[in-house]
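User: Structure please.
Assistant: Input sequence and predicted structure:
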Amino acid sequence: MILKDGMIYDGIHAEPFQGDLAIRDGVIAAVGGEIPALPGEEILDVSGRRVYPGFIDAHSHLGLDDYGMGFEGDDYNEMGDILSCQLRAIDSFNPQDKAIPMALAGGVTTVGTGPGSANVLGGVFMAVKTWGSCVDDMVIRTPVAMKCAFGENPKRCYRDKGNSARMTTAARLREALFRAREYMERKEAAGEDVLKRPAFDMKLEALIPVLKGEIPLKAHAHRADDICTAIRIAKEFGVKLTLEHCTEGHLIAKEVRRSGAPVAVGPTLTNASKIELVNKTFDTPGILAAAGCQVSIITDAPVIPQQYLPLCAGLAVKAGMDPFAALQAITINPAKHLGIADRVGSLEVGKDGDVVVADGDIMVSDTQVLTVFLNGQRVVG
């Protein structure tokens, strides 16, 4: 398949360029210039159209909270165990969730999805494509992160069960990491001697990839002090961290930048449903990007329907964010955030053939997504 003579926004270069794009065997085979067609190869004229990488949402609960359902489809929060690190998003994901084709129609081809923020440790996130009938065939990478939560949600959900203060949340997370580190060290010291190995513990096993730096803690934190606590604990244990929501990140932009943690900002297109959201603003992603942070913009779907991810980027631009930074915040940056930038996030040779064709600026509300390719297959339009 050759997309002919489009305006290409590749997610890497600030300036778009006119040219062709070839998708062959499910991956991008060539970008830019005039690409000669192979015998019998299909050509799609995209002159006057804009060509983008498939959009990526770094933080959602797609497939775990079925569209239009109540408790029957609510599978992203386990409310009976504040330390639920052994849970895996893949085991709750429903490929038949009606929100998935809606996301795809909006050009969102990849999402990070996983547990909610009721628990101090909620389980592992995964990265999936938004097309398929079996989750095992949709997964790009699992796990991508271990969900942890600070602030009001663990307090609210467990206030009658011994977790009614922020310092208690922090202490529970520290204790879990201390225990997991001791467990890991005992396993390593035992080597092949099964008699010296500690008794198997599924929760502690789930934390070993965090301690080894294979996946980050994915820290739900809205308020500035909660963001700082997440950074503090990550430093104490020498583990990787991503900051999720980061609602008051603009108030401590220098501290966030100094931490080096990637940031996923949102959901911003909603009201302040709780006190820790009162400083929510579309200024935040632009301020953090200008400070030098790696910023992704997120919907936290179903909080904001996933198909409105580009609109959220557009509202960030309206608030002052650089347009190219906003485009990167829904393409290459979330790919890096999820550890899948080798596969998706930009229009580069060798990457998955996830491509969106639109009739205008994707961050403007009246722009229409005309065609979507996923893994080189035309799935929309």
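Residues 166-190 form the longest helix (25 residues).
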